[in-house]
Amino acid sequence: MKTFRVFLVLATTVVAFCSGSLLAQQSPGGNGVPVHMVVTAESRHGENPGVINQQDVMVLEGKERDTVTNWEPAQPDQSPLELFMLLDDGSSASLGSQLADIRQFIAEQPAAVKIGVAYMQNGIGRIEQNLTTDHDQAAKALRLPLGSPGVNASPYISLSDLIKRWPESTARREVFMVTDGVDRLYGAGDFQNPYLESAISDAQREGVIVFGVYTPGVGHLAHSYWMNYWGQLYLSQLAEETGGEAYYIGFTGAAVSFSPYLDDLAHRLRHQYLLTFLAKPQKKAGAQKVRVTTEVAGVDLVAPKSVYVPASQ
Model-level pTM greater than 0.90? Predict the structure, then answer.
């Protein structure tokens, strides 16, 4: 009888321990600071990723898992979208042949989507058309670039300027940024370009997703393999860090058409989700690295690499 009782106690203890361990893995701590993020679901096979459920989503800070409190599809009629078309005024005349594709893309967007048009010029995101649901008006704001060497010293300063002047909103905020990515103010050959880092930080803080599109610039640097190589690296880093995508075909080549890029952008906009999770509380507000992932086969979740977390109260 004693042997049976000892066995029963041990068995109960083992079950309780295992159950507690399993619960700890499946139910992350509920304490934290609510943080919001826009996430894009991407199929690894080029198809529609299908529906991703909240229980399929994991948010990790290092090795620790945060609690996901909300996960819902982002639909234009329920979750507004604000999209700026940001073009480099230092681009070559080849950009002119792409304007028809951009206008068609604008015309095809759902009626509720607000679209703005701006040009990078002397470190400013010069707005030609404020965000509007009048898509015809937005399309008319597109024009040929000035095409003058040096008219845009750093595309990343212009992006930061646009973000800082973007009216506060709860809408999804995204940028289709067309430039050669060459930073004529800072130069190249450095993975710690301060203007690029500031633009990434500003975008992450304000929840702005950037899609970088390479198009050739003008002047001597437009023919520099070295400068264009780094320009595309910077654009790729900007898109990767903010949860977007970078598009280009070669280090100095102009795309025949932007249509494939714009089709991909439209596809991604249709497969975005609104995520809310509880980040680890910090004494000081600032950026925290996170990783958003899923175990759903064949699907990747694309999200900013860092998120701004307010200080804990």
Answer: no
